[in-house]
Design a protein that fits this description.
This protein has one helix and two strands. By secondary structure, it is mainly alpha-helical. It has a two-stranded antiparallel sheet with strand order 1-2. It is 51% helix and 8% strand. It starts with 28 loop residues before the first strand and ends in a 5-residue tail after the last helix. It has one domain.
């Protein structure tokens, strides 16, 4: 990264104030739009950091959603078993232990 990079939004050349997040060198950030897949070059590290944090949060929620789906399927299975068992148990009670 070049020290003294000139961000068009925050740099003040007269005061020699520069944004440390701005990259003017050839090593730029390439971001892909999640909706369209379009790639764009980004020079502002702060913007890239926010997008990266959003992507990390989305990725961390994926396992939780998969676990919830598995839990729901297991709950459906137990509901079926409970229905079958509730119809079997009264039949066993009516036999009074007779086979």
């Amino acid at each position: 990264m070049i020290v003294g990079a000139k961000c068009p939004e925050t740099s003040d050349i007269a005061a020699k104030a520069y944004c440390p997040w701005w990259k003017d060198d050839g090593d730029l950030f390439v971001m892909a739009n999640a909706k369209t897949g379009e790639e764009r070059v980004e020079q502002c590290g702060a913007r890239v950091m926010v997008q990266a944090q959003i992507e990390v949060i989305k990725a961390s929620n994926r396992p939780a959603a998969a676990i919830e789906d598995a839990r729901n399927e297991i709950a459906k299975g137990f509901a079926v078993v409970a229905t079958v068992m509730s119809s079997i148990v009264p039949t066993l009670d009516n036999n009074d232990g007779k086979n």
